[in-house]
Amino acid sequence: MTVVTLIVGGNQRQSKRSRSDHLTLCLNYNLLALSKDDIDECLQTMYEAYIFNISANTCAVLVSATGDEDLKQYELEVRDNYRCAIYDQLFREGLNYASRDFSSVEPLRYEHVWKKFDDVEPNIFVRQYLDQICDNFAKDFMVIHRTSRVLRKCGQYQDLMLLSDGDDEAYSYCDPEYYGKMARPYGQTLFHDSVDVERIYKRKLDYTLVLDGDTGVPKGGTFDLMEIAAAHPERGIIQPSIKLHCTSRDTMFMHLESMRQSLFEPLTNATMAYFSQSSFFGKGLIKNSVYIENVIGRRNNLIERVPIDVLSHDTFEASLLRPLYAGSVYLLEAPSYNYVTWNIRERRWNRGEVLLAFYFWENLVGVPMRWLQSKLQGDKFVKTTLRTKSKLDFVTSYVAHSALRQMFMKPILLLYILLHYQTSLRYRYASIIIVMFLVLIFPKFATTTRKNYKFVIIETVASILQFTPEAFVGCVRIVRAIQANVSTSVKWVPQRAVEEDFKKSNPFLSSLKHLWGYTLFSSFFTVLVILFMPDSVLILVMFGTCILLPFYTGFTSLTLDLKSSRSLENQRNNLEIGVSTIAQPDVKVGNIRPLTYTNIAVPTAPHPEHVYQPYDPFKLKQPQQLFERTPIAVY
User: Fold this and answer.
1) pTM, to two decimals
2) Is residue 332 classed as helix, strand or coil in its secondary structure?
């Protein structure tokens, strides 16, 4: 990657664009909520993405796989709260537009919403159009509940595409011959009946922007993506870059992760441009018709290329749809809170990569691992078969297996360290110097500039402390990932629960609580190495950094001003995704004063003197009480 970057350049490429007015888009968030905090975070993020990318061709849909009935009801209550906020905000802005107070109108919304009414008399616009416009946009902020969990997140947006295409009953992943007990009943309703489901049914949406609950879309980002998609109709996926976004109140680890991603962005730009193809990051713009035809199939021609039990579905999707990398457009995502949550995420990803190996190398990995599963899981074991296998060319294979290569670098590095000790070398430290140069220094030739050299130094020091233990910690992670795939006794720890644990206690004590095993093990073996293998410098360095890992984690769990982390409420209130002016320059996205439809009276003439009053919707204790409305013609 470094060589390619030095040859072709790591500059950001501008993708070809075309007009996209004729294309429709669904902003799709997918959620399996375990708490109200999960719902609050996801729906605020969806609201922010929707309100600053709103147009007649765009809707926002949260596909929920939440099982708890109280949480499902809470999702609908918060949805109604935001619908009120959307109606209120658009109504007030529409009044300003009608009065020709364009300074109080968001420019993008003027271009994509209000401009088409320029020829309408202001009073007629307010009396006859404004209410219906606001009501339609509010209703296009939707929440629907899936009836099954087949294929997890991937199944959530697959079923959404099928619903939009006109299928409201399951026909995919229903065959017990292939999927055993994991198969769902043929003809099962895809979603629980609701007005929102009816609103999506047969809507024939062209594209779906698939997002996670914490993925932000910057202001105007969807319009840029759709213009790129319009210029590349043959591409099944348009993959924007992912920008790790953090604020001054985030932890040092989050800033380091954001810095690292920014520094290595040129390598990604160059590699994707060189191959004219991208990985799929699980968050991107998908063309519905291409996806259905090539990944799911139709009722009379099933394809089902994504394995029913796979975790890293994006690898299979990328191998079929040849994503186009649109590095000039980005999505926003928060980095991992600290090293512990990063390690949990890596372990989950490793588990997904191990499962991928079952399918990509069926005889070498799949057969023995399935046999091991059957022995350890007993009656719980479900034998599954992939209906349609994917054939990968060299470029697709290289891109698809990048995460798998990185994962197996850890045991290779550990093997290298052990062989280095056992081998008699004339220049003993020459190989160490070469390896360290290639890993730490050489990539910097492609990324370092006069502006970022200080950050390069900081990132290099942090990488030594964080990644040197990976020769050992990474191997432990792989073993646990394999164990999670073959056994049923492994419990999954939600990252949010770990974050909350750190926020409520001393970060150093919490770090020691989660990482004490590495410190104790490394301390014991460090003593043995010093006594019996004093020349094993590499082994000592590896164990030494493992001993320091809890201290590194505790320190980087502090904020930049060396204070403990902020609360979840501060995290929400300080989220800076797509911040822009609404009617006052200092009003942020989250500060909306939700009104009930019943207490908005349509005036006989616009009110240019109207002043927007900010309000925080998260301070509402009972949002359902705000949405009690009466069936009247004018709200």
Assistant:
1) 0.87
2) strand
